[in-house]
Each structure stands twice: as C-alpha cells, then as structure tokens.
Amino acid sequence: MEILPGHQLQLPEIAEIGATPRHLARLVPWHAHAGGQILCVLRGATAYQFRSRRCPRIEVPGGHFLVIPAGVAHRGAAEVRPPCMIVQAVLAAGRPGSGASALGSTDWQWVRRRLEPRQPSVHPFSAELQRVVTRLVRAVPAVGARPRDRLLAARLRLLACELLVEAAAQVDDTTRAEPDDLVQAATAYFQTRLDEKIRLGEVARRLGVNRTRLFEQFKRVTGLTPNDYLLRARVERARVLMADPRRSVTEVALAVGLGSSQYFSTVFRRYTGQTPGAFRRTLGLAAG
Fold first, then answer.
1. Looking at the chain, which terminus has fewer C-beta neighbours within 10 angstroms, N or C?
2. How many structural domains comprise the chain?
C-alpha cells in the first residue's frame, strides 16, 4: 500500500492517507491509531479483527467503508476476496494546526464527531463517496511516484478533504435513516422463522449490513439485543400455541425453535416466571 503522511500534503486533519489496487491481508501485529481511521473497500472484500468481546471481527465488502475509533486495537484478518482495492485515511489526533486545508475548524469538528464513533462500524458508499474513492486509488500512488508535482498534490489534498466530508455525511445519513427500517426488516425476518435456528450473521448478510451494525442499531431502537428479542418472540409464540391442548410441550418447543423440552422450559420460565406446565394449568389445561 502506498502511504503518504498528511504533513507532506499540507493536510493537518490527516495523519496519513494510503491506497492500493491489490490489497494483501497480513496478520500484522495489533496496533491502534491516535486518531480515527477510515478504511474504504472499493472492490473485493476483506475483514478486520478487534480486541473486543463485543466486536471481535468485522467483514467489509466492496462498496463499504469501515470506521475505526481512535485507540481501538485492530489488525487485518487473513480473509480477502481479490481483487481488493482499498483507500484508507487516519485522522490526526487532537486539534489540527494551521495548514493549506479546505476544511475550517467548524467543518473539522463536524467531521471528527462522526468519524470517531465509540465502536467500529461499517457503512455503504454513497454515489459521491464512490467517485472520490475511485479517484483516490489512482491519485495516491501518482503523488507517491511524483512527490514534487504540486498540481497532483493539490488535487490529492482536495480529494482527501472530500473523502472526510463524504464519509462523515454518509455516517450521519445511515445513523439517522437506517435504524427503524433496518430493525423493522430484522424483526420481520425473525417473526417468519421462529421455528428455525437463526444466526445473526446470516440475518445481517441478508439485510446487506454488518453483524455489529445490526446489533448496535437493534439495541439502540428496541433496547434489546437481537437474541433477547428473538427469545421473547419465541416465548410469545409458544404461549399462543400452548393454548391448543392437542399440542404437547415438546411439539411446541420444536415449533418455536427452542429444541428440547428441557431448554424450552428454562427459557419459558425465564421470561414468564412460570414453567410451561404451570402456564397450562392457568388456562385450565393439562400440563402434558
């Protein structure tokens, strides 16, 4: 990857910017940056590992960018789908000094608030961001090969500022616009498959988002984790099915995807305070 320091481009907001048309993932030592990092995958797909129980690994498909908060330890995972084209930018730590920048101090604060979230997050490209990243894949190596070319450097400087602004705008848009639609789609998926074994990663892929992002949006909107919501939905369906005296507890357990009657009984009691048998007796039914 061709990497250029921000000071070389007179960009006080950026510590470094890099690009490569042929990304080769290597298990480099764990590292973190003093400022936030943006990793844009133009083509192919790649993945990153994090030292976090909440977010141990994130896949980044082409047409998406990953935002990594300042100070978060990470490294590239071995999984890469070539040809993988990547552009990255590391934000400068603290308040930038003076320099020939297209961003004013107010603009910079707006950008930084959006590009330094609490957790790593993946976002789709907007049309404008797609255009900027496509040009940066060519511009960064060109400036690296001709560092004294002022025209090339000036163009790269403007593109780098566009990258920050467009990425921040896209983070802002997806954070504001996606939660309700995304969570509504996820809950609809859950409700139609309560009798199946559901994996959150598969649900996220079907909805076109990252697993971590689905988890965060779901928790933000509902106040529940996806797994907690799913178990509650299974129990509510079970309460309805158990009103039918022809169904045994085992049949109900299988019908709501909770497997064995023993596990079903444990989950049912956790969310209702009653065993399945006790619940049936309140309905005037036999406990079988």
1. C
2. 2
